[in-house]
Amino acid sequence: MTNSNPTKTDKEIIAELHTEIVRLIDFAELSSDWFWEQDRNLKFIAFSGAGVSRISRHQSDFIGRRRWEMPISPASFNDMQAHKACCERREEFRDFQYCIFNTQGELQRFTISGTPIYTEEGEFDGYRGTGTNITDLYLARKAFKETEQRLSQIVVGSPIASFVIDSEHIITHWNKACEVLTGIPASKAIGTKNCWQGFYDSPRPVLANLVLRGALNQDIEKHYGKKFRPSALIPGAYEAEDFFPNMQGGKWLFFTAAPLVDELGHKTGAIETLQDITRQKEQEKKILHQAHFDSLTDLPNRFLALDRLNLLIEQTKREHKKLAVLFIDLDDFKKINDTLGHAFGDELLIEASNRLRKTIRNSDTIGRLGGDEFIVLIDDLNCERAVQPIAENLLSSFRQTFKVQNRELLLTASIGISIYPNDGTQPDELLRNADSAMYFSKNQGRNAYHFFTEKMNEGIERRLQIEEQMHGALSRDEFVLNYQPVFDVNSGAIVGAEALLRWSSPVLGQLSPDEFIPIAEQSGLIVPIGYFVLQQALEDTQKWITQYSKPFTIAVNLSPLQFRDPKLTQRIKDTLKGLELPGSCLNLEITEGVLLGNQQHIEQAFIDFAALNIQISMDDFGTGYSSLNYLRQYKFSTLKIDRSFIQDFETDPSAPALINATIAMAHALNLSVIAEGVETKTQKKYLLKKDCDFAQGYYYSKPLAKEDFNRLLSCN
Ligand code: C2E
Ligand code: CA
Ligand code: CA
Predict the structure, then answer these.
(1) How far does the centroid of ligand 1 lie from the alpha carbon of residue 612, in Å?
(2) Does residue 458 lie within any of the structural domains?
(3) 41-49 long-range contacts, Cβ below 8 Å, gap at least 24?
(4) Average pLDDT over residues 376-382
(5) Which of 69-83, 344-358, 521-535, 687-701 has the lowest mean pLDDT?
(6) Residue 79 belongs to domain spanning
(7) How many domains is the chain built from?
């Protein structure tokens, strides 16, 4: 038995045999009858019908002659004797066969049937009857026998498992390949009807039997489903595919069954071929699986998950229930991938997906939408509140640390939930809204879930608008810098300024950096924008330094993405060189977020900046982890106390203590301290008393446009 596809030639041979049989039947139909009459001496007195002309060119040849006086071939002598005897007894006779040579010398076969006729007085008056030329039929039968022989040879010799059943459904042929495939020997199969019991699932009928029974398409379909289909190659034949679990290891078989017909077109049986297509089926299944399941986590992929969502929506609609779509995004996964490598990230994803899968019921759907995004579908809900414990469980499934490649780490996720039909009736709408809710969870500090509300989409809409406008903003000159002076707390002199970016968009109006900087970071646009800030701030600084010939430090904020840009140090070096500025006039402000990530890279950046005499400030100190470790590990020059501490100073009793401690600690580490957001005289006085080095804030000056800052400098 081969596992290959049905070979066309075998199929074609079977088809060929069928057309041959059909042609033979057509021949048989051409044969025609005639009538004859004999007198009481058995001499012919009349003939009618076209058929007789094939026996003799002139009908008159027979008139007045007896049948046995004609050129009868010796092959007919037996029937002739019987015929004679019948006539002597004045009996009716049927189908005596004669062979004669006609006037053209061709051997013709015909059968004769007749009934005696009597006069009114009851006297024998001769015979009347019919003749039928069976020459063609005889030839057809002979050809059919040959065909049948050829057929059985094909069946026996075919590499395709094939067997033949007769009109009684009994197996007449069972070839070697059939033995191999089914394990049933021909000796056991031939002559039986049901040798495949245990091989075929009873009561599954053999396709050949169906074909033999002449079941109509609809009937076959009605009883046995769509797996039986009319063959495209062989008229009247069927094919089917089916799985047989009870064959060794289970097998997929491909069947064809074609009816066998005799010279008269009657079904005499059927031939069926069987082919093992298990391997092909497994391949198909694998491809189908690959198309529907994520190869890493083996969860349903986006395509399948959305397909299920579609089905669940239909079902939920019918049952008047609710359906929840949970959009899950792992927090900070990109950072893990970037710093610990993709192989690590992959393992973590598998672990994470396993935990999510275990948290939900088997009947719920979970899928991977791509990257670190997952979807969970919870149906059959009576009210949306029922999702809350599920969302909580999903979040708390991450509470335990993940152990990957001998590392332990904590991972959290943000979840957004949309509900059918409240938040949408279409899959994409529900998905989009769950995504918005997920974003909201991220912005609320992550490791949280939120239900979708209309307001969230307004936020998303705005985000998209900002990102769209930001793309051309640099080339349209929409960005400018403001400068907020930094003062020496002791002397009250201006020692520098912080460059603060401003964007006024003709479409969106004036935008706050707190709104557009995070978007610039996420879209990557912060890198070119950051270069613009550096260039512009250093150009302005160069003018002020030459104009006022006083020490002046310009502070520029750097976002994590900029800091990781490998070209950053070289670009700064080139810019400083081009403007003939010392590195010491530049102070880069970074937040703790910058320090998470590739250790080696950060260390190198600190070394490079130190070599250029560039200062580095720890911005927003007190808001993040405020890890003292970082302050020890990296060479910072300045620490900036976050403005929230300065602002809480008069209301929160613990704020002054924190400010004290921070200043003392910074000085102990040899760092200078800037207090930002100083708004009142009291604050300033306190900072002075506590030895804070520098300060900036509305008390001194708001961030100013370049011209205004210039004016301020000239009168300082
Ligand atoms: P930041 O680095 O903490 O900047 C100080 C912020 O405090 C500025 O807000 C400034 O206008 C504000 N401020 C100054 N004095 C006072 C005060 O007395 N009271 C109060 N309430 N606020 C005061 P701004 O300009 O809106 O900038 C917001 C943030 O945007 C900055 O926070 C910084 O993180 C970021 N940013 C601004 N420009 C850039 C830039 O060029 N690059 C990067 N990466 N980030 C920037
Ligand atoms: Ca800053
Ligand atoms: Ca700050």
Answers:
(1) 26
(2) no
(3) 41/66, 41/126, 42/66, 42/67, 42/87, 42/126, 42/127, 45/126, 49/131
(4) 95
(5) 69-83
(6) 33-133
(7) 4
